[in-house]
Amino acid sequence: MKYIYYFLLLLSITSFSQQLSLESANHLATLPIKCLQQEYPNKLGQMLIDSTEIQSPKKLHPSFYGCFDWHSSVHGHWSLVYLLKNYPKLANRDEIIKKLNTNLSAANIQNEIDYLNKKHEKSFERTYGWNWLLKLQLELDTYNEPFAQQLAQNLKPLSNIIIERYIEFLPKLLYPVRAGTHNNSAFGLTYAWDFAMYSKNTNFQNNIKANAIRLFQNDQNCPFNWEPSGTDFLSPCLEEIGIMQRILPKKEFLLWLKKFAPSLFTTRFTWQVAKVSDRTDGHLVHLDGLNFSRAWNFYYLIKQYPKEFGHLKPLADYHLNFSLPSVVDGNYEGEHWLASFALRAFEERK
User: Fold this and answer.
1) Which of 99, 170, 158 has its CA nearest to residue 134?
2) What secondary structure letter does DSSP report for 228?
3) Per-residue model confidence as pLDDT tens digits over 40-75
4) What pLDDT is recorded for position 77?
5) Is residue 143 left, alpha or beta, with left meaning phi > 0 and alpha meaning psi from -120 to 50?
6) Rounded to an integer, what distance in angstroms lies between the CA atom of residue 290 and that of residue 273?
7) pLDDT digits over 261-305, tens only?
8) Whole-angstrom distance between the N-terminal and C-terminal Cα of the chain?
C-alpha cells in the first residue's frame, strides 16, 4: 500500500508543471507538517564547551528542532506559512496553525535567542540559516492574518539579531565562499536583501550591496561546465547572478552578466540536470535540490528580463519537473527539506 500511495502522489505532483494546484499544495504541505515536530533523526551543528551543553534537540532549539536540522526546520516553517497564505483552503489548516503557534511562541523564540547569544555560537547557521530565517520573517510580515502577525512579532527579536550578525560579519568576509552547499556566500545574501528592501532598512541594504559588489563585481566567465560538484544543492554561478540581479540596476547588471555568463544570452544555451544515484544518501540527494535551485534562479531572471532570457524557460521547467518525483519518494533524507526547494521554484515561476 505504501508504494501505491507514493505512485498516486507522484502522478499528482508531476501533473502541476504549469502551476501549483490546491491538491498539489496539499501534498507538499504534508512533508513539513510531518517533520516540523519530529525530533529525530537530528543533526546538531553545535559547539560543546562542556558536558552541560549536551541536551536534546528540542531542549536546545524549541522552535526549530524538527526536520532533521535547524535550517531545514526554518524553511519547513516558511513552506507552511507560504502555503497557508497562498492557498486559503489548504487542508489541515487548523493543524498547521496550531503547530506554528506552538513552535514560534515568544517563549520558544527567546530560547533560540539565548542559544545564539552564547559567545561560542556567533557563527551558528551563518549564513544559510540566517538567510532562510529572514525569508520566514518576510513571509509572516506580509501575511495579513492575526495569528501570522503575532508570530511575526514573536520572531522579530531573533531576526534583529541575525541582521546585526550580517552587518558585523560581511565586512570581515574577505573572500566569497563559492561552494554549492550551505556556506555559499551569494545565496546567503539573497533573502537577506529581499528583507532589507521590504523593511526599508537602508543600513542593512547598504551593507549587503557594498559587500556583494566587493566580492563579486569583478568575476567573469563563470565555469558552468564545472557544475555540479558531487553534493551541490545550490548553483555557485546562478546564486551569484541572483544576488547581483537584486542589487544592480538593469544596465549595470546586464553589462556585468555579459562578462560573467555570456553563454546565457544565446538561445542555444543548455544544461544537463543533476542526477542522483542513491536517494537514501543524505548528501547525494542534495542534487535534487540543485535542480530546484537552478529552476528558481532561472525563473527569477526570466521574470525581470523576459526579452533577454525568455529562451531559458523550457530549461527551467525541465529542471523543476525532473526532480519533482523525488519530493515524495518516501525517503526522509530528501523529504525533510526538498518540498521547500520545490516551493521556491514554484514561487518564482508564478
Assistant:
1) 158
2) P
3) 999 999 999 999 999 999 999 999 999 999 999 999
4) 98
5) beta
6) 9
7) 999 999 999 999 999 999 899 999 999 999 999 999 999 999 999
8) 34
Interatomic CA distance for residues 33 and 94, integer angstroms: 12
Share of the chain above pLDDT 70, in %: 94
Give pTM, 2 decimals: 0.94
Q: Which long-range contacts (CB under 8 A, 24 or more apart) does 109-112 make?
A: 109/63, 109/154, 109/155, 109/157, 109/158, 110/157, 111/61, 111/62, 111/63, 112/61, 112/62, 112/63, 112/64, 112/158
Interval 204-250: pLDDT, tens: 999 999 999 999 999 999 999 999 999 999 999 999 999 999 999 99
Helix axes 70-86, 93-103, angle to 10 degrees: 140
In which band, very low, low, confident or very high, does the pLDDT at 176 lie, cut at 50, 70 and 90? very high
Give dist(CA 327, CA 200) in Å, integer: 36
Q: So what's the pLDDT on residue 335?
A: 82
Look at residues 309, 165, 191 and name the one whose alpha carbon lies nearest to residue 243.
191
Statement: residue 15 has pLDDT above 50: no
**C-alpha cell recorded at residue 145:** 492574518
Q: Is 279 helix (H, G, I), strand (E, B) or coil?
A: coil
Please report where in the chains the cell 507522484 appears, as a residue. 10
Ramachandran assignment for 125, one of left (phi > 0), alpha (psi -120 to 50 degrees), beta (any other): left
Q: What is the pLDDT of residues 117-130, one digit of tens each?
A: 999 999 999 999 99
Using only the alpha carbons of the chain, give its radius of gyration: 20
Question: H or E segment at 341?
Answer: helix 338-349
Q: Is pLDDT of 189 > 90?
A: yes
Nearest alpha carbon to residue 328 among 1, 20, 23, 30: 30
Round to whole Å and give the CA distance between 77 and 143.
14
Is 36:66 a contact under the CB 8 Å cutoff?
A: yes
Under 8 Å CB-to-CB from 248, ≥6 apart: which residues? 256
Closest CA to 28 of 9, 11, 42: 9
Q: Is 284 exposed, middle or buried (0-12, 13-18, 19+ CB in 10 A)?
A: middle
